[in-house]
Amino acid sequence: MNTNAKVRVVVGLSGGVDSSVAAYLLKEQGFDVIGVFMKNWHDESVLLSNECPWVEDSTDAMMVANKLDIPFLVLDFSEEYRKRIVDYMFAEYQAGRTPNPDILCNREVKFDLFVKAADKLGADYVATGHYCRKASIEKDGQTIYKLLAGADPNKDQSYFLCQLSQEQLSKALFPIGDILKPEVRRIAREQDLVTAEKKDSQGLCFIGKVHLPVFLQQQLKPRQGDTILIHPEQPVHNNLEKYEDHPSGNTTIQPVRSNLSHNEMSASDMPVIGVSLVESDHDTLDKICSATRYTPEQGIKVGTHNGAHYYTVGQRKGLQVGGMEKPLFVIATDTKNNIVYAGMGDDHPGLHRQGLFVAAKDVHWIREDVKLAPGESSRYLARIRYRQPLSMATLIMRDHGLYIVFDTLQKSVAGGQFVAWYSDDECIGSGVISG
User: Fold this and answer.
1) Is the domain of 141 the same as that of 239?
2) Quick check: is 330 in a domain?
3) DSSP 350-366
4) I want to staple 23 with a disulfide (CB 3.0 to 4.6 A). Which of 11, 12, 160, 181 is the partner?
5) Side-chain half-sphere of 219: how many Cα atoms within 13 Å?
6) What is the pLDDT of residues 130-179, one digit of tens each?
7) Same domain for 357 and 238?
């Protein structure tokens, strides 16, 4: 007798190959499967092409459901998506920050609105085609869920789920998290699914590949301003390499609480952190972890732009300034005064930072059982963008927020992005970079 026969799972069918195979695997495992397509966007005026229109995707999702002989529904979340995701994007860009709508979309739509809709359908779980895994442990009589990286290192999507809560994880299934992308394609071909050879979607969650300036101009109007070139010799106050008590230097060290209580660590495994760094005052940590602020007087005007709110740190294309020895990169924006600051070459010091800060209200722990209290510190692996290699960092919790100091310089850190921290392949928590 199949023990999964009465367990109902609602699968988010996006019209792509990953969710299609996720639905197939669940059906094969004997679950009672329902396929749902989430309609969240229908304004095609900002799309670069018809690569990801919702009509085509919903049709493909329906054809997969028919092939698998499972019920199929279309749910319209477009109004809530506009309020929770699109309005958030406009507000962040207006403030000169760089949002990540895909992470918010997972937290607010796929694992909130979708889960609530699935509950009404009598679902025990919801499933998606994300390349990540879920595990659980028992601790103090309580089940604690772990968000793990996907088995395919080239497709791991745990970063996009770094804002999920224990409650959301308890309801989630990730059927393809243990297999590689080529295997997913192979299964889809063997089952003759219409999505087997379909290209992976690109661009914004549920919207597709958009022309971002056109998209932003729906609410953020063009406004001409100056582009200022900053010479690389300008002082960069937040470079920890200039800080005399860098952890790699000659300074007193001590073991620091690891906060990874679910791992058995011997004394020799305990990380060591420079006492002076962990015990630094706020001013010192702020210098290490804040973005460099520039003024027009520090550089020269080399061009104009149509709005500082259209640009982000690290951006190379769109500056429309030629005749330079090296390509120009955005190193800072000032949306209040409508100024874009640029640096020449990807080795410009303004592109690199040693640390960042997350305000207390924006700190999120997936593993609340190991979260840092004010005054505590720990060592974790961390990343600030999808597919970025994990880098070792020191996390220092204070009353007003979390300081994250990397062992190596990080490139193109922008306020509004999400930083996520890991213990090995487990995502422990995340937060919104303040600036």
Assistant:
1) no
2) yes
3) GGEEEEEEEEGGGEEES
4) 11
5) 11
6) 999 999 999 999 999 999 999 999 999 999 999 999 999 999 999 999 99
7) yes
Q: Other C-beta atoms within 10 Å of 101: how many?
A: 21
The total number of structural domains in the chain stands at: 2
CA distances from 328 to 298, 316, 324 (A): 16, 6, 8
pLDDT in tens, 281-300: 888 999 999 999 999 999 99
State the distance between the two ends of the chain, measured CA to CA, in whole angstroms: 56
Beta-carbon count within 10 A of 251 CB: 14
Let me know whether 261 and 138 are in one domain. Answer: no
421 within a domain of the structure (yes/no):
yes
Cα-based torsion angle of the residue sequence 313, 314, 318, 324 in order, rounded to the nearest 10 degrees: 120
- Residue 277 pLDDT class (50, 70, 90 cuts): confident
Q: What is the pLDDT of residues 72-87, one digit of tens each?
A: 999 999 889 888 988 8
Amino acid symbol at 91 = A
Residues 163 and 276 in one domain: no
State the residue range of the domain holding 128.
8-216
Q: Looking at the structure, tell me whether residues 135 and 229 fall in a common domain.
A: no
pLDDT one-digit tens code per residue, 206-225: 455 566 666 777 778 889 99
Provide the CATH number for the domain around residue 123.
Answer: 3.40.50.620
Q: What is the pLDDT of residue 39?
A: 87
Asked if 207 and 109 sit in the same domain, the reply is yes
Decide if 2 is inside a domain. Answer: no
> Among residues 132, 162, 205, 289, which one is catalytic?
205
Please tell me the distance from the alpha carbon of residue 47 to that of residue 204, in angstroms, as a whole number.
Answer: 10
Task: Choose between 45 and 354: higher pLDDT.
Answer: 354
Reported as a pLDDT band with limits 50, 70 and 90, residue 61 is very high
Residue 183 backbone phi and psi in degrees, to 5:
-70, -40
Can 427 be counted among the known catalytic residues? no
Catalytic residue among 105, 162, 289, 427: 105
How many other C-beta atoms lie within 10 A of the C-beta of residue 1? 4
Average pLDDT, integer, range 8-19: 96
Claim to verify: residue 340 and residue 268 sit in the same structural domain: yes
Q: Is 105 a catalytic residue?
A: yes
Q: In the predicted model, is pLDDT for residue 306 greater than 50?
A: yes
Whether 3 is in a domain gets the answer: no
Angle at 409 between CA 324 and CA 130, to 5 degrees: 100
Q: Which of 22-26, 271-275, 332-336 has the lowest mean pLDDT?
A: 271-275
Please check whether residues 197 and 244 belong to one and the same domain.
no
Domain boundary, last residue among 195, 216, 237: 216
DSSP 155: T
